[in-house]
Specification:
single chain; 396 residues; alpha/beta; 3-stranded mixed β-sheet; 15 helices; 10% strand; disordered C terminus
Length: 396
């Protein structure tokens, strides 16, 4: 029997309007001062309004840090932690996308310990205590509300992760009403990001386990069945709910069976060119799947039966159908199909490949070993119109 460990949040609340109950949860910790970590877009869209009103009505002092930006740079994380310490904050709350949630995890930790951010990049280096932490996602994508991971952009434009069980929140609060206003482009990119979490957890070489497998399968079923639907009608609360639930389950899966080459190749795209994380994943997804096919064909065939129920055929045929279906989802949801389409030049591919190879924490999980030449070939395939395959770029 395979040995494994599995970690997840102590508490999950999932219901429309859940964000209006945050004051009750804060009160259960006896906290009288709270820092809300978010970004100006989320707050400007009114997504924090109900929570702010509920906290105010309960007489809880609220400090707001809304300077989070996508792919949060280290100096913003450190500024938020400094503000948290200075304000003698007792609990950290975050409402937002993955960047806000990741920032909040680190704020809750850094404000309570003497550790420096530079000293805790990596796995298991954050070992101290943190402030109580409540996370509320506004996108169905990152799954950050249930993971022990926070991603930061360093001053050298490299994405680094802090991975530690101490970052798992006390409460993950999922309110699908907060996702109703997401634009179709964001819905598509974050939805594909969540599906990549499920796919890479299911094929993760090092820590794949029975519990992560079941979560990944259920997540992929929910996400693939609803992503086109929510892109067509963003006000469909039932479909939004299924997407948010699928994203959380995928987050729990990859928190325990880590992601691999899709994310490793996506990170430099986001860090250097500021392409949103979900879109970065989508741009390289097909070509990494093609690359991994020789090592992951049976697993891809199993996933094919989830994204295309009733599918018949041989294992190779099903695995190929899986890759084709993932490509079709991106196309049907109008996701850009190439690196060139987001302003990346062919001369940039070498730098991207070099930076991707620094993501050793992720690459070790890939079902097939990936070299610098492989990374460059995958980026080359992704540079075109989306129809080129890795095998053509590498061997053609």
């Amino acid at each position: 029997m395979r040995k494994f460990t599995f970690q997840a949040p102590s508490n999950i609340m999932f219901e429309p309007g859940a964000s209006r109950k945050i004051n009750e949860l804060v009160a259960s910790y006896g906290a009288r001062s709270v820092m809300l970590v978010t970004d100006k877009g989320v707050r400007g869209a009114g997504l924090t309004r109900d929570a702010e009103a509920a906290l105010a009505a309960a007489g809880i002092e609220l400090s707001i840090f809304d300077d989070v930006v996508a792919d949060p740079p280290s100096h913003i994380v450190e500024a938020a932690a400094d503000a948290c310490r200075a304000g003698e904050i007792e609990l950290v709350l975050s409402i937002g996308g993955g960047s806000a949630l990741d920032t909040a995890k680190l704020v809750a930790y850094l404000a309570r310990t003497p550790d420096r951010l530079d000293d805790i990049y990596g796995v298991g280096l954050a070992k101290g205590k943190r402030l109580p932490l409540l996370l509320v996602p506004t996108t169905a994508g990152t799954g950050s509300e249930v993971t022990p991971i926070a991603i930061v952009t360093t001053p050298t434009a490299e994405k680094k992760g802090v991975v530690s069980p101490v970052l798992i929140p006390d409460w993950a609060i999922l309110d699908p009403e907060l996702t109703l206003g997401l634009p179709a482009s964001v819905t598509a990119a974050t939805g594909i990001d969540a599906m990549v979490h499920a796919i890479e957890a299911y094929t993760s070489k090092v820590k794949k386990n029975p519990m992560s497998d079941q979560l990944a399968r259920e997540a992929l079923a929910l996400l693939s069945a609803n992503v086109r639907r929510v892109c067509e009608n963003g006000k469909d609360l039932e479909a939004r709910s299924e997407m948010l639930l699928g994203s959380m389950l995928a987050g729990m899966a990859f928190a325990n069976a880590p992601v691999a080459a899709v994310h490793a190749l996506a990170y430099p795209i986001g860090a250097i060119f500021h392409v949103p994380h979900g879109l970065s994943n989508a741009l390289v997804l097909r070509h990494v799947l093609e690359f991994n096919l020789t090592a992951a064909e049976p697993l891809y065939a199993e996933l094919a039966e989830i994204v295309k129920p009733g599918l018949r055929g041989s294992v190779p045929e099903k695995a190929r159908a899986f890759i084709d279906e993932m490509t079709a989802i991106g196309r049907d949801c109008h996701v850009p199909g190439s690196l060139a389409a987001v302003g990346i030049g062919r001369d940039d591919l070498k730098k991207l490949a070099e930076d991707a190879m620094k993501q050793t924490r992720l690459l070790v999980n890939n079902p097939r070993e990936l070299t610098l030449d492989d990374a460059y070939a995958i980026y080359s395939a992704a540079f075109g119109d989306g129809s080129n395959r890795y095998v053509q770029a590498a061997h053609g």
